[in-house]
Structure formats: structure tokens, C-alpha cells
User: Which sequence fits this backbone?
């Protein structure tokens, strides 16, 4: 059955995406900063505070961006419709034998 998403919750979606981006940037940026700091000359090392400022910056920027995106989606839903997806009832027999191979 095809369904449409009629409304996106701006705060909830923004909160989830912002935290994921902040955690992801911590995991990806901290090792890069440490590596650059290890091999860079003393006068050209990036400030260590950037390891905290950048994830917080990502969190704020992504939160605001997703809130705006959800607001635009919600405003345009009445004119252009929503994101469509298909749903199906789970097949009980395939659950008993394990995941289906496609």
C-alpha cells in the first residue's frame, strides 16, 4: 500500500539529525585533527579548541537547516503532495526461516 508523509516534525527531526552530525563529526574530525597536529610544525598546528567547536557548529547548523527544511516540506505538502513509500504486511513464514534473500 502506498502512503505519503503528511507532516515532518521540525524539532524531532532536527534534533536527531543534528546529534548524528555532531557525533559523526567527532568520530571523523578528531582523529584528523590529532593526525594533523602531530605532523604539523609547531606554529601551524590547528587550535585544539576546534575539535569541540566544529562538532558544536555542525550541531547548530544542521538543527537550523533541518527545521527550515521541515517547515518548507510542511508548507508545500498541500500543493505538491508528500514523500511516498510502500508498506507491506510481514510474511510470517519467512520470519520463521530467517531473513529473505533477494
Assistant:
Amino acid at each position: 500500500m502506498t502512503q505519503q508523509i503528511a507532516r515532518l516534525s521540525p524539532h524531532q527531526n532536527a534534533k536527531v539529525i543534528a546529534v548524528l552530525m555532531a557525533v559523526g563529526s567527532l568520530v571523523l574530525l578528531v582523529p584528523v585533527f590529532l593526525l594533523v597536529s602531530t605532523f604539523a610544525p609547531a606554529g601551524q598546528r590547528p587550535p585544539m579548541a576546534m575539535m569541540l567547536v566544529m562538532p558544536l557548529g555542525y550541531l547548530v547548523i544542521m538543527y537550523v537547516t533541518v527545521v527550515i527544511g521541515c517547515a518548507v516540506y510542511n508548507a508545500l505538502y498541500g500543493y505538491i503532495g508528500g514523500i511516498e513509500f510502500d508498506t507491506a504486511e510481514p510474511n510470517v513464514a519467512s520470519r520463521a526461516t530467517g531473513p529473505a534473500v533477494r
